[in-house]
């Protein structure tokens, strides 16, 4: 099973099913791990079919009063939601001690999967690591491994032996100096020289204290240092080395400010283990693996190959640079993680090592909206509440109404109908904020009121920016949502599309076009508004489409396109907006201003799907727009909040001529324009909307 594995949306077929109406959890034997796993109330049939029923209707049939009634599996690997393929690979990798590379969106459970591997590794293989002084070369400390739990006992025995030897030496030293002092006293009394007595006594006391301290220092220098220690029967180590520096990852030797004069610290006592050494016989987890420098990745590769790596000073100007230990054991399992761009920054040899001796997994960012998966999300809420127990501020459990809103939010953030978001870190933040509001209100359970309040105060930065933009435009009368204008269209866009967040924030994107005769031929297209390269390419493609569809030679015109009060426009979702504005300006046909639109445009005149459609529609509703034109393919992705459903009408289109039918107002040239467009557009979309009567 080695190689690349892509996590699928399907649920594992091995999960047992209980009878209808079962309210008590049942212990089901996991055939693969031979351990007991708690499964909460699965249905006998249809558990993996995508649901068409609303969350509110479905949850009324689920037998629980609050998340306190939901059992939680003991093993961390069984608590992971929606990553069935990843869970299978984790178990295989733990059994075979294989490395892993997990790629996917942030907050989808990569670190939780990695941490769960420690439950599956053997505990009897743990080892303690000690470093000893080297009598032959003090700059090459010796390394020794012992079974787990013995290192501290060894050090304790050595310290006790040194203490006893020190006490014996100090007694003999005291007797010797006492004898010398007695002889000095007798000599001074016989000579009557008091000054000689005082001076000799001072030298005697000073010599005694100096020799005593030196004897103690010599004895302490023989005591080994524990680099890595474990308690008996503890879990194998899980070390998160994300964003660590070279010394923290690979180990280091501390600088000694006292390098001579008998006050220096022994070299072995200045050795500090790195994350690779502390992860010995356990798991080393590194997120955003591409952020490691290539030299560090090469050293990591060496440690993986040799299963041992010497510790040396990482600072060239430090006295520790002279010290280099014997190879220190570091037999760890590497779980590297990151987004898709992380692959580009990985050392080729490091990735080859993982591919040759491990697994690659692409984690899910969404899962099917099935009854089984909805129940898993309910269990996720219970797990988040449990995770906050025994903290400074515990949050109460969630009742059915609160759970329903969380499930609805998971649907919205998935961005696709029939899917549930697996950006569980973001959902977990909403759960905790709602719980905090319930604590402030003194409520025994978190209710729908608290979740709605949490959603309002926990808006992402992008949504806050969008709200302020809408408010500013309203204050300065820049928001046009009524009447008609030539060459002006209300487009729609999202903020945060590339931020790694699932909760997009929509904004209005007014686009204005002006067409003027070209002076001297060779017309140009001028676009302003901080467009990205992709958006600029979209403008160029639109001009080619308009040339074909209208039959006009746009080289005779200078076309000016302005994205009003907008900067940083990215993507091609404004293609139909640009095309509509330019055609309106060319044909001098007004456009409805109570209408907004979004959609990509192919060179054949088809309207193609875009992302963030729900956020865009809700932004239009907040701006007072009544009708929104979207690609027909995106209608399955529209999941409006209840307060917006009655505020707007959403119209689905397939081609540019249908856009014109809705966008252009009644005009003597409208009918002929739509007919011309309808005649030249290549209709490749299999499902076409019925022809709408011209108005």
Task: Tell me about this structure.
With 695 residues, the protein is of the alpha/beta class. The chain folds into four domains: 8-75 and 369-457, Helicase, Ruva Protein, domain 3; 127-148 and 233-362, Rossmann fold, CATH 3.40.50; 150-228; 468-680, Ribosomal Protein S5, domain 2 (2-Layer Sandwich), CATH 3.30.230. Helices cover 38% and strands 18% of the residues. It is built from 21 helices and 28 strands. The strands form nine sheets. A seven-stranded mixed beta sheet has the order 21-22-20-19-24-27-28. Strands 1-15-4-14-11-8 form a six-stranded parallel beta sheet, sandwiched between helices. Strands 6-5-7 form a three-stranded antiparallel beta sheet, with helices on one face. α11 (371-387) crosses α13 (424-441) and α13 crosses α14 (448-457). The radius of gyration is 36 Å and the shape is elongated. The two termini are 62 Å apart.
Helix tally? 21
Shape: elongated
Strand order of the largest sheet: 21-22-20-19-24-27-28
The CATH topology of the largest domain, please? Ribosomal Protein S5, domain 2
Please state the second-level CATH architecture of the largest domain. 2-Layer Sandwich
Low-pLDDT stretches: 1-39, 685-695
| Average of the residue pLDDT scores | 80
What count of domains describes the coordinates? 4
Q: For the report, how would you describe the main beta sheet?
A: 7 strands, mixed
* CATH top level class name of the largest domain: Alpha Beta
Distance between the termini: 62 Å
